[in-house]
Amino acid sequence: MHRLFYPEVAVVLTARHEAKIGGMPAIWCMPLSFKPALVGVAVSPEHDTYNVINQAKAFAINFMDFRSAKQVAELGDITGKGLNDKLSAVGFSTIEGEATGQPLLQNAEAVLECRFVQVYPTGTHRLIVGEVLIAFANDSFRDYWDFTQYNPILYAGTENTVEQCWVFRSGRGERVTVPMKVQP
Amino acid sequence: MHRLFYPEVAVVLTARHEAKIGGMPAIWCMPLSFKPALVGVAVSPEHDTYNVINQAKAFAINFMDFRSAKQVAELGDITGKGLNDKLSAVGFSTIEGEATGQPLLQNAEAVLECRFVQVYPTGTHRLIVGEVLIAFANDSFRDYWDFTQYNPILYAGTENTVEQCWVFRSGRGERVTVPMKVQP
Asked: Which of A90, B87, B108, B168 is least surrounded by CB atoms within 10 angstroms?
Protein backbone atom coordinates (compact mmCIF):
# COMPACT_ATOMS: atom_id res chain seq x y z
CA MET A 1 0.00 0.00 0.00
CA HIS A 2 2.92 2.35 0.66
CA ARG A 3 3.46 2.72 -3.08
CA LEU A 4 0.08 4.38 -3.46
CA PHE A 5 1.70 7.43 -1.85
CA TYR A 6 4.08 7.89 -4.81
CA PRO A 7 5.30 10.29 -6.08
CA GLU A 8 7.05 11.48 -2.91
CA VAL A 9 9.90 13.97 -2.58
CA ALA A 10 13.13 12.08 -1.91
CA VAL A 11 15.16 13.97 0.68
CA VAL A 12 18.61 13.02 1.93
CA LEU A 13 19.14 12.45 5.65
CA THR A 14 22.64 13.20 6.89
CA ALA A 15 24.23 12.78 10.31
CA ARG A 16 27.61 12.42 11.93
CA HIS A 17 28.58 10.79 15.21
CA GLU A 18 32.24 11.18 16.05
CA ALA A 19 34.18 10.04 12.96
CA LYS A 20 31.22 8.20 11.42
CA ILE A 21 29.19 10.01 8.74
CA GLY A 22 25.89 8.51 7.63
CA GLY A 23 23.41 9.43 4.95
CA MET A 24 20.45 7.93 3.11
CA PRO A 25 17.59 8.96 0.87
CA ALA A 26 14.21 9.01 2.59
CA ILE A 27 10.71 9.43 1.24
CA TRP A 28 8.78 8.84 4.47
CA CYS A 29 9.52 12.28 5.81
CA MET A 30 7.06 15.07 6.59
CA PRO A 31 6.31 17.99 8.93
CA LEU A 32 4.48 17.17 12.17
CA SER A 33 3.97 20.58 13.79
CA PHE A 34 4.17 24.29 13.04
CA LYS A 35 5.41 25.48 16.44
CA PRO A 36 7.60 23.95 17.63
CA ALA A 37 8.68 23.15 14.09
CA LEU A 38 8.70 19.37 14.19
CA VAL A 39 9.41 16.90 11.42
CA GLY A 40 9.07 13.14 11.37
CA VAL A 41 11.02 10.63 9.36
CA ALA A 42 10.27 6.93 9.41
CA VAL A 43 13.44 4.86 9.01
CA SER A 44 14.13 1.16 9.29
CA PRO A 45 16.42 0.53 12.29
CA GLU A 46 18.41 -1.82 10.04
CA HIS A 47 19.82 1.21 8.26
CA ASP A 48 23.25 2.24 9.43
CA THR A 49 22.15 5.88 9.20
CA TYR A 50 19.44 5.22 11.77
CA ASN A 51 22.12 4.34 14.30
CA VAL A 52 24.21 7.37 13.43
CA ILE A 53 21.20 9.69 13.94
CA ASN A 54 20.32 7.94 17.17
CA GLN A 55 23.83 8.46 18.53
CA ALA A 56 24.33 11.95 17.12
CA LYS A 57 21.00 13.11 18.59
CA ALA A 58 20.81 15.42 15.59
CA PHE A 59 20.47 15.18 11.81
CA ALA A 60 19.87 17.20 8.69
CA ILE A 61 17.26 16.94 5.95
CA ASN A 62 18.62 17.95 2.53
CA PHE A 63 16.37 18.82 -0.42
CA MET A 64 18.17 18.09 -3.68
CA ASP A 65 17.53 19.12 -7.25
CA PHE A 66 16.41 16.62 -9.88
CA ARG A 67 19.90 16.91 -11.39
CA SER A 68 21.15 14.95 -8.35
CA ALA A 69 18.65 12.08 -8.72
CA LYS A 70 21.31 9.62 -9.87
CA GLN A 71 23.60 10.49 -6.98
CA VAL A 72 20.73 10.20 -4.48
CA ALA A 73 19.89 6.77 -5.90
CA GLU A 74 23.53 5.71 -5.54
CA LEU A 75 23.46 6.77 -1.91
CA GLY A 76 20.47 4.48 -1.42
CA ASP A 77 22.21 1.64 -3.23
CA ILE A 78 25.17 1.31 -0.89
CA THR A 79 25.29 0.45 2.79
CA GLY A 80 27.13 2.60 5.28
CA LYS A 81 28.28 -0.45 7.21
CA GLY A 82 32.05 -0.49 7.16
CA LEU A 83 32.22 2.99 5.63
CA ASN A 84 33.39 5.95 7.64
CA ASP A 85 31.95 8.51 5.25
CA LYS A 86 29.14 7.21 3.08
CA LEU A 87 28.44 10.68 1.69
CA SER A 88 31.86 11.26 0.15
CA ALA A 89 31.79 7.66 -1.11
CA VAL A 90 29.17 8.74 -3.67
CA GLY A 91 30.73 12.13 -4.28
CA PHE A 92 28.74 14.40 -1.98
CA SER A 93 30.65 17.33 -0.47
CA THR A 94 29.50 18.54 2.92
CA ILE A 95 29.70 21.60 5.09
CA GLU A 96 29.23 21.68 8.84
CA GLY A 97 25.84 22.83 10.08
CA GLU A 98 25.86 25.97 12.23
CA ALA A 99 23.24 24.84 14.70
CA THR A 100 24.09 21.18 15.08
CA GLY A 101 27.55 20.59 13.63
CA GLN A 102 25.94 17.94 11.43
CA PRO A 103 27.10 17.45 7.83
CA LEU A 104 24.95 19.30 5.27
CA LEU A 105 25.12 18.58 1.56
CA GLN A 106 26.90 21.42 -0.17
CA ASN A 107 24.72 21.41 -3.28
CA ALA A 108 21.40 21.10 -1.43
CA GLU A 109 18.61 23.47 -2.52
CA ALA A 110 17.32 23.58 1.05
CA VAL A 111 18.42 22.15 4.37
CA LEU A 112 16.77 21.63 7.76
CA GLU A 113 19.06 21.21 10.74
CA CYS A 114 17.26 19.15 13.36
CA ARG A 115 17.67 18.28 16.99
CA PHE A 116 16.61 14.69 17.76
CA VAL A 117 13.53 14.93 20.00
CA GLN A 118 12.30 11.37 20.34
CA VAL A 119 11.58 8.18 18.51
CA TYR A 120 8.32 6.24 18.23
CA PRO A 121 8.27 2.56 17.29
CA THR A 122 6.09 2.00 14.21
CA GLY A 123 6.17 -1.63 13.09
CA THR A 124 9.08 -2.30 10.72
CA HIS A 125 10.25 1.31 11.10
CA ARG A 126 11.00 3.92 13.74
CA LEU A 127 9.56 7.40 13.51
CA ILE A 128 12.32 9.84 14.40
CA VAL A 129 10.89 13.18 15.52
CA GLY A 130 13.18 16.16 15.10
CA GLU A 131 12.88 19.83 15.93
CA VAL A 132 14.04 22.15 13.18
CA LEU A 133 16.59 24.58 14.59
CA ILE A 134 17.63 26.26 11.33
CA ALA A 135 16.07 26.13 7.87
CA PHE A 136 17.89 27.33 4.78
CA ALA A 137 16.76 27.50 1.17
CA ASN A 138 18.00 29.02 -2.07
CA ASP A 139 16.42 32.02 -3.83
CA SER A 140 13.81 29.81 -5.50
CA PHE A 141 12.03 29.77 -2.13
CA ARG A 142 10.24 32.85 -0.76
CA ASP A 143 7.23 31.90 1.32
CA TYR A 144 6.87 29.07 -1.22
CA TRP A 145 9.00 27.32 -3.84
CA ASP A 146 8.53 28.90 -7.24
CA PHE A 147 10.18 25.77 -8.71
CA THR A 148 12.31 27.81 -11.13
CA GLN A 149 15.68 26.99 -9.61
CA TYR A 150 14.55 23.98 -7.58
CA ASN A 151 13.10 21.03 -9.50
CA PRO A 152 12.25 18.39 -6.89
CA ILE A 153 13.18 14.71 -7.04
CA LEU A 154 9.97 12.73 -6.86
CA TYR A 155 10.46 9.05 -6.17
CA ALA A 156 8.06 6.87 -8.14
CA GLY A 157 9.25 3.31 -7.56
CA THR A 158 11.21 0.85 -9.64
CA GLU A 159 10.87 -0.79 -13.03
CA ASN A 160 12.33 -3.91 -14.54
CA THR A 161 13.20 -3.61 -18.22
CA VAL A 162 16.67 -4.85 -19.22
CA GLU A 163 17.78 -4.36 -15.64
CA GLN A 164 16.14 -3.29 -12.39
CA CYS A 165 15.98 0.51 -12.13
CA TRP A 166 14.91 3.20 -9.72
CA VAL A 167 12.32 5.56 -11.22
CA PHE A 168 12.33 9.27 -10.46
CA ARG A 169 10.01 11.94 -11.80
CA SER A 170 10.63 15.65 -11.59
CA GLY A 171 8.31 18.46 -10.61
CA ARG A 172 8.04 19.26 -14.33
CA GLY A 173 6.85 15.86 -15.44
CA GLU A 174 10.27 14.56 -16.51
CA ARG A 175 11.16 10.95 -15.81
CA VAL A 176 14.53 9.29 -15.32
CA THR A 177 15.52 5.74 -14.46
CA VAL A 178 18.71 4.83 -12.62
CA PRO A 179 19.96 1.22 -12.81
CA MET A 180 20.41 -0.33 -9.38
CA LYS A 181 24.02 -1.03 -8.53
CA VAL A 182 23.20 -4.40 -7.05
CA GLN A 183 20.71 -6.17 -9.29
CA PRO A 184 18.29 -8.22 -7.19
CA MET B 1 9.95 25.25 7.05
CA HIS B 2 7.01 22.93 6.34
CA ARG B 3 6.64 24.49 2.88
CA LEU B 4 10.06 23.22 1.88
CA PHE B 5 8.40 19.80 1.64
CA TYR B 6 6.16 20.91 -1.24
CA PRO B 7 5.02 19.49 -3.59
CA GLU B 8 3.16 16.89 -1.53
CA VAL B 9 0.33 14.61 -2.64
CA ALA B 10 -2.96 15.93 -1.24
CA VAL B 11 -5.08 13.02 -0.05
CA VAL B 12 -8.58 13.26 1.36
CA LEU B 13 -9.29 11.87 4.82
CA THR B 14 -12.83 10.64 5.38
CA ALA B 15 -14.57 9.31 8.47
CA ARG B 16 -18.02 8.85 9.90
CA HIS B 17 -19.14 8.62 13.50
CA GLU B 18 -22.84 7.89 13.88
CA ALA B 19 -24.65 10.46 11.70
CA LYS B 20 -21.67 12.78 11.42
CA ILE B 21 -19.49 12.56 8.29
CA GLY B 22 -16.17 14.36 8.23
CA GLY B 23 -13.56 14.90 5.56
CA MET B 24 -10.54 17.07 4.86
CA PRO B 25 -7.57 17.28 2.53
CA ALA B 26 -4.27 16.33 4.14
CA ILE B 27 -0.70 16.60 2.92
CA TRP B 28 1.08 15.47 6.09
CA CYS B 29 0.32 11.83 5.47
CA MET B 30 2.77 9.00 4.84
CA PRO B 31 3.46 5.30 5.44
CA LEU B 32 5.14 4.35 8.73
CA SER B 33 5.61 0.57 8.42
CA PHE B 34 5.47 -2.26 5.89
CA LYS B 35 4.11 -4.98 8.20
CA PRO B 36 1.87 -4.22 9.90
CA ALA B 37 0.92 -1.74 7.18
CA LEU B 38 0.85 1.48 9.17
CA VAL B 39 0.22 5.02 7.99
CA GLY B 40 0.54 8.29 9.86
CA VAL B 41 -1.37 11.50 9.29
CA ALA B 42 -0.66 14.67 11.24
CA VAL B 43 -3.83 16.68 11.80
CA SER B 44 -4.57 19.74 13.88
CA PRO B 45 -7.00 18.81 16.68
CA GLU B 46 -8.92 21.97 15.83
CA HIS B 47 -10.22 20.27 12.72
CA ASP B 48 -13.68 18.84 13.06
CA THR B 49 -12.54 15.81 11.07
CA TYR B 50 -9.94 15.05 13.74
CA ASN B 51 -12.74 14.56 16.25
CA VAL B 52 -14.75 12.40 13.88
CA ILE B 53 -11.75 10.12 13.27
CA ASN B 54 -11.04 9.99 16.99
CA GLN B 55 -14.58 8.89 17.74
CA ALA B 56 -14.99 6.60 14.75
CA LYS B 57 -11.68 4.83 15.58
CA ALA B 58 -11.35 4.33 11.84
CA PHE B 59 -10.87 6.43 8.71
CA ALA B 60 -10.11 6.25 5.03
CA ILE B 61 -7.37 7.83 2.92
CA ASN B 62 -8.57 8.70 -0.60
CA PHE B 63 -6.18 9.40 -3.50
CA MET B 64 -7.86 11.69 -6.01
CA ASP B 65 -7.04 12.58 -9.60
CA PHE B 66 -5.84 16.06 -10.55
CA ARG B 67 -9.27 16.61 -12.15
CA SER B 68 -10.66 16.80 -8.59
CA ALA B 69 -8.16 19.42 -7.34
CA LYS B 70 -10.81 22.16 -7.20
CA GLN B 71 -13.22 19.97 -5.26
CA VAL B 72 -10.47 18.93 -2.84
CA ALA B 73 -9.60 22.61 -2.29
CA GLU B 74 -13.27 23.37 -1.60
CA LEU B 75 -13.35 20.63 1.00
CA GLY B 76 -10.42 22.33 2.69
CA ASP B 77 -12.12 25.72 2.48
CA ILE B 78 -15.17 24.87 4.55
CA THR B 79 -15.47 23.75 8.14
CA GLY B 80 -17.36 20.65 9.14
CA LYS B 81 -18.64 22.34 12.28
CA GLY B 82 -22.44 22.45 12.09
CA LEU B 83 -22.48 20.21 9.01
CA ASN B 84 -23.70 16.64 9.20
CA ASP B 85 -22.12 15.64 5.92
CA LYS B 86 -19.23 17.81 4.82
CA LEU B 87 -18.42 15.50 1.90
CA SER B 88 -21.77 15.82 0.15
CA ALA B 89 -21.69 19.57 0.85
CA VAL B 90 -18.95 19.88 -1.77
CA GLY B 91 -20.44 17.28 -4.07
CA PHE B 92 -18.53 14.13 -3.16
CA SER B 93 -20.46 10.87 -3.40
CA THR B 94 -19.45 8.10 -1.04
CA ILE B 95 -19.71 4.37 -0.72
CA GLU B 96 -19.38 2.40 2.51
CA GLY B 97 -16.04 0.74 3.14
CA GLU B 98 -16.13 -3.05 3.43
CA ALA B 99 -13.62 -3.33 6.24
CA THR B 100 -14.53 -0.35 8.37
CA GLY B 101 -17.92 0.94 7.25
CA GLN B 102 -16.26 4.30 6.76
CA PRO B 103 -17.27 6.56 3.86
CA LEU B 104 -14.99 6.21 0.81
CA LEU B 105 -15.00 8.72 -2.04
CA GLN B 106 -16.68 7.14 -5.04
CA ASN B 107 -14.37 8.69 -7.63
CA ALA B 108 -11.13 7.99 -5.73
CA GLU B 109 -8.28 6.46 -7.74
CA ALA B 110 -7.13 4.55 -4.67
CA VAL B 111 -8.39 4.13 -1.12
CA LEU B 112 -6.91 2.85 2.13
CA GLU B 113 -9.33 1.75 4.82
CA CYS B 114 -7.68 2.20 8.19
CA ARG B 115 -8.24 1.13 11.74
CA PHE B 116 -7.25 3.83 14.27
CA VAL B 117 -4.27 2.44 16.21
CA GLN B 118 -3.11 5.34 18.34
CA VAL B 119 -2.35 9.02 18.40
CA TYR B 120 0.91 10.79 19.28
CA PRO B 121 0.95 14.44 20.32
CA THR B 122 3.26 16.44 18.04
CA GLY B 123 3.18 20.15 18.90
CA THR B 124 0.36 21.93 17.06
CA HIS B 125 -0.76 18.65 15.52
CA ARG B 126 -1.61 15.08 16.46
CA LEU B 127 -0.12 12.18 14.57
CA ILE B 128 -2.89 9.66 13.99
CA VAL B 129 -1.47 6.20 13.35
CA GLY B 130 -3.71 3.84 11.38
CA GLU B 131 -3.39 0.26 10.26
CA VAL B 132 -4.40 -0.34 6.66
CA LEU B 133 -6.99 -3.12 6.55
CA ILE B 134 -7.86 -2.92 2.86
CA ALA B 135 -6.14 -1.10 0.01
CA PHE B 136 -7.81 -0.56 -3.34
CA ALA B 137 -6.53 1.10 -6.50
CA ASN B 138 -7.61 1.43 -10.12
CA ASP B 139 -5.93 -0.29 -13.09
CA SER B 140 -3.28 2.44 -13.30
CA PHE B 141 -1.64 0.74 -10.29
CA ARG B 142 0.13 -2.63 -10.58
CA ASP B 143 3.04 -2.88 -8.16
CA TYR B 144 3.47 0.85 -8.92
CA TRP B 145 1.42 3.68 -10.40
CA ASP B 146 2.07 4.02 -14.12
CA PHE B 147 0.43 7.48 -13.88
CA THR B 148 -1.56 6.95 -17.09
CA GLN B 149 -5.01 6.96 -15.51
CA TYR B 150 -3.99 8.54 -12.20
CA ASN B 151 -2.49 12.01 -12.29
CA PRO B 152 -1.78 12.99 -8.67
CA ILE B 153 -2.76 16.25 -6.99
CA LEU B 154 0.44 17.84 -5.70
CA TYR B 155 -0.13 20.67 -3.27
CA ALA B 156 2.33 23.51 -3.77
CA GLY B 157 1.06 26.32 -1.53
CA THR B 158 -0.86 29.52 -2.19
CA GLU B 159 -0.40 32.64 -4.26
CA ASN B 160 -1.83 36.10 -4.07
CA THR B 161 -2.52 37.69 -7.42
CA VAL B 162 -5.96 39.33 -7.80
CA GLU B 163 -7.20 37.12 -5.01
CA GLN B 164 -5.71 34.53 -2.66
CA CYS B 165 -5.50 31.13 -4.35
CA TRP B 166 -4.51 27.56 -3.58
CA VAL B 167 -1.83 26.26 -5.95
CA PHE B 168 -1.83 22.67 -7.17
CA ARG B 169 0.57 21.01 -9.57
CA SER B 170 -0.01 17.71 -11.29
CA GLY B 171 2.29 14.74 -11.75
CA ARG B 172 2.74 15.92 -15.35
CA GLY B 173 3.94 19.42 -14.54
CA GLU B 174 0.53 21.11 -14.96
CA ARG B 175 -0.42 23.90 -12.55
CA VAL B 176 -3.82 25.12 -11.45
CA THR B 177 -4.90 27.78 -8.97
CA VAL B 178 -8.17 27.67 -7.07
CA PRO B 179 -9.44 30.90 -5.46
CA MET B 180 -10.07 30.51 -1.73
CA LYS B 181 -13.72 30.74 -0.80
CA VAL B 182 -13.04 32.89 2.21
CA GLN B 183 -10.45 35.52 1.30
CA PRO B 184 -8.13 36.17 4.24
From this structure: A90
